[in-house]
Amino acid sequence: MRDVIIVGGGPAGLNAALILGRCRRDVLLCDAGNPRNAATPLTWGVFTRDGTPPFTLREQAHADLDRYDTVERREIEVVAARRGERGFEVELADATRESARRLILATGLRQDLPKVEGFETYWGTGVHSCPYCDGYENRDQAIVAYGRGHASCGLALELSCWSRNVTLCTDGADESLDAKDRERLARNGIRIVETPIARLSGDGQQAERLTFQDGQTIPCSGVFLMPVDCEPSHLLRQLGCDIKETGVVPTKNDYEKTNVPGLFVAGDASRRVQFAVVAAAEGAMAAFAINMELIAEDTA
């Protein structure tokens, strides 16, 4: 039986493996190889690595892990997991099974895009989920907040940090956007368009305009999506993990512990601040907590 199995090879899983490797723990890192940020050209906001392509960061992380002989990496999906008396057992896509005393799920979340023509084409280059990651590259340009209700007002106001040319598009009449929010948006120079969207178009590389079903168009270099409920990993449900309605896993004591003893989550599945650097920090915190638990067990 291994010390730890980590499911997911993004920043959270990779940093957890690094810390545990340095603790000389027997670790298996399983990565299906389809990261959420695969369509993102560059990763921003990571000190000393600002603007590095995501796959370059992963390659460097793999090289770092290869220095530790107790860490094994496999590019394979974990299809099932269960908790037993001694720890956890996972089933891999090749039908093999592995067991460990502790389990970290760093699987992230799946981003479901609104069904608007062009959103998938420009996902990662003109359609974004995080203004802190991509707002700077759209500074002082025409940008769009996409969403409904009070939260969409907050997103539009947030975007005004990067541009004074912000439009809130609700993609249809939005009765949930109340008068107080509408007045606040108007006071801050943010236009509201409730006409359904027909398409986002551009030159194939960069978004340029948003066209509505009534034929009107507005310039648009970037669309920022209001955070939406996401479907978490099926492994969380298999293991009996508490999950909020938004798809986020509540964790305890800032150490990424779940309600299931021995099960930790790190990265996008654990909270709404979905920065690469925060995910890496969560992986480190989970690794620290696990190592302390294992020390306590082994020295009791």
Automatic annotation (TrEMBL):
This protein's source sits in the domain of life called: Bacteria
UniProt GO MF annotations: oxidoreductase activity
Q: Which UniProt keywords apply?
A: Flavoprotein, Oxidoreductase
**InterPro entries, per this entry?**
FAD/NAD-bd_sf (IPR036188), FAD/NAD-binding_dom (IPR023753), Ferredoxin-NADP_redctase_2 (IPR050097)
Q: Which residues form the FAD/NAD(P)-binding domain?
A: 3-283
Q: Which PANTHER family match?
A: THIOREDOXIN REDUCTASE 1-RELATED-RELATED (PTHR48105)
The protein depicted here goes by the name Thioredoxin reductase
Q: What lineage does the source organism belong to?
A: Bacteria, Pseudomonadati, Pseudomonadota, Alphaproteobacteria, Hyphomicrobiales
